[in-house]
Each structure stands twice: as structure tokens, then as C-alpha cells.
Amino acid sequence: MEFGPAQAAESVTVPPYAPAIGTELHYRVQKTTETDMSLWLDKPGASSAVMRGDFRQSATVLSRDDEGMRVRWRLSADIPPDAADAADSYPMNAMFRNSLAAYGVQQVEFETDLSGTPTALVGADQILANMEKLLSTSPPDSTASRMLQTVKSNPLTIIDVLAPESMILALGQSSEAFTTDIGREWTVEGNEELKGMLVPTSTVWKLEAADEIRQIATFSAKTTYDPAALLQSQQSSIDGIIASFGDRAKQLSDARLAQARIAGKSRIVTYVNSTRDGSTLEVLENTVASVGGVTLTMTVHVWQEGQPPVLPAPQAWNAGTLSGQRQNQ
User: Fold this and answer.
1) Do residues 111 and 68 make contact, with C-beta atoms less than 8 angstroms apart?
2) What is the pTM (predicted TM-score) of this model?
3) Rounded distance between C-alpha atoms, residue 62 and residue 60, angstroms
4) What are the strands of the beta sheet with 48-64, ordered from one edge?
5) Angle at 299 between CA 77 and CA 305, to 5 degrees
6) Distance CA 224, CA 296 (A)
């Protein structure tokens, strides 16, 4: 991947995140999910499907002190006027409209730390009341009811569902200035909760490039997951998928059935950060997850309006065979 002119300065300093207070910023958000079921389906064209969403969201830092910030995200499921294709080419927008209706909001407000990472949802009680009213006629064991219980135990889940871009942008921002060299790598160990289990992760960060004229620095972050813990977290899903295919699973060769019993996940994220105020101007996240012989490739491309994107659009964004209706049935 090429990042443009950046070779003037070998060492780059990124300042602490210092957003303007009270200024509303608009972000373009393009998402794709590609589902590959070629292990299970033999029909050409039926084994892979791409679903897209095109959004325009807005964020404002309302206040800031020494401990953190209060941020508001205004949310919209509307397809931007300059979207390239017809409305039915973006089924994720309709799905997001349903999510907004389920939570009964058009915006979310939350507290963050100094990097912009959400720490507490403001107005969680009202959102929960909205959900309970909507779900009053739902069975107690329904997916929606289980979601309500999840939100009750961790209200930050609402931000993950409605404004995940806030978390993606914040991961590229820091509360402290740091200096590093182009090409230098460093590793950060962590964990991610999957199916109620904490799965150890290892992320290799790298400063890929910098452009003094445009005052940007480009970082990459490649995350891998502990294989044994990942498999354990996904075992019930693997068993469920294999069982759902019934006789088809019995017809698979031993090699293909063994492949279906494997779990895999990886993530590559590229950040374009401002060397003026430390903010993330653009981010491209690509996650590949394989469970039960089904592989999902999910991409999120976010950029701040007024800053033309420098990262290439994901290949699936311009896929020749788009399928939303088939997956939404």
C-alpha cells in the first residue's frame, strides 16, 4: 500500500488529542460486510455476498477538563445525497434505521477519557426505558430481550452499536504526545471480549509514513488473537453452524469438516492522524473472522469531511455482485 510523499522527516511527533470545543465535525462512514460460504455452497455466486452501508454522522466535543470530555454524536441512517448507487444498494442503512428506532434516539451523548474513548453513557436510563417500551410484547427469550439485558449490564454497548466510529477514531488518538520513527514497530498486548470470554490479543503498531506539508502521519495496527482462547470462545457457534447444515455437513470430506471446526480472526487498521491536534482524520479497519466454515470480511472506512481521503476504498466497496436483499431475508 502506498501512502504518498512522506520521506522528508524520519522522526515524527504526534501531539496529544486536542479537539476544538463546540465545533461539530462531520464524518463519512462507508461499511461493507462480505460473507463467504464457499465451504458449504457449491453454486457459483451464491457462496459470497457483499452488503454495504453509506452514512454521514456528526460529532461535537461539548466540554473538556483535566479528566476527560463530554461528546455528542448526531446519528442518521439517511444515505448521503452523493452516494454513487441506488438506495437498495445500501441495506446496512435500513438496518441502522431499525437500530435507531429500537433505542429510540437520534443522538448519543457520553463521557470520554482524554483520547476520546467512551467511558460512560449519558441518559442511559431514558434509552433503556425506550427499549423496554418497545419490547414490552416480546418473548423473554427473544434476541431483542437478550440485547436489553446486555445493555442493562453494560450501557456502553449502546455506543458500540450506534456510534462505533467514536471508538475506532479514539483508538488512533493519544492523551499524550509521542515521537517515533518512520518504519518503527512496537507491540501492545491486550484482550477482547468475545462471546463472554476474554481472548488475549497482540497488536503490532507501525508508523508507515508522514507528510510534513499536509501535517499527517499514517499508522498501521495489525491485531492477532490467541488461537486456543479464540477457538474456545467460538466453539458453541461452530457447533451450531455445523448442525444447521444437517446432511450437508455429513457429506463434507474430513478435510473440509476439519476446516469448518477452525476459528480465526485478524484485524488490520490504518490511521491517518493530524500532527497539528492529534486527531484521527481517517481510518480504514479491515476485520476477517472465520467460524464454522463461514468467513466474514468486515470493513469500515471513516474520514472527516473537508479532509479528502488518502486511503484506498476497500475492494469489496466496488464489488460487481452486491447482495443485500438475499442476506436480509
Assistant:
1) yes
2) 0.90
3) 6
4) 118-122, 107-112, 69-74, 48-64, 24-36, 294-304, 280-291, 263-274, 216-225, 197-211, 185-194
5) 55
6) 16
For each of the chain's 329 residues, which pLDDT tens digit applies?
Answer: 444 444 445 899 999 999 999 999 999 999 999 999 988 887 655 567 899 999 999 999 999 999 999 999 999 999 999 998 888 899 999 999 999 998 999 999 999 999 999 999 999 999 999 888 887 777 776 777 778 888 888 999 999 999 999 999 999 999 999 999 999 999 999 999 998 899 999 999 999 999 999 999 999 999 999 999 999 999 999 999 999 999 999 999 999 999 999 999 999 999 999 999 999 999 999 999 999 999 999 999 999 998 889 999 888 888 755 654 433 33
DSSP per residue, 94-155: HHHHHHHHHHT-SEEEEEE-TTS-EEEEETHHHHHHHHHHHTTTS-TTSHHHHHHHHHHH-T
Q: Is 204 helix (H, G, I), strand (E, B) or coil?
A: strand
Residue type, 251: Q
Q: How far apart are CA 224 and CA 227, in angstroms?
A: 9
Residue with cell 451450531: 240
Take residue 71 and report the three cell numbers written for it: 461528546
Beta-carbon contacts of 254 under 8 Å, excluding residues fewer than 6 positions away, are none
Rounded to 5 degrees, what are φ and ψ at 141? -105, 15
- Cell triple for residue 62? 461539548
Taking only Cα atoms into account, the Rg of the chain, rounded to an integer number of angstroms, comes to: 21
DSSP state of 324: S
Return the closest-CA partner of residue 280 out of 297, 311, 302, 263: 302
